[in-house]
Amino acid sequence: MSDDPKPALRRLFRERRQQFVGRLCVKDRRAAERALATLIAPALAGFHAIASYAAVGDEIDPAAIEATIGPHAFPRITGKQMKFHVCEWSQMARGPLGIPQPPATAPQITPDLLLVPLLAVTLAGVRLGQGGGYYDRALAALPGVRTIGLAWDVQIADALPVEAWDQPIDFVATPTRLVDCRRQR
Question: Looking at the whole model, is its pTM more than 0.90?
Answer without folding.
Answer: yes
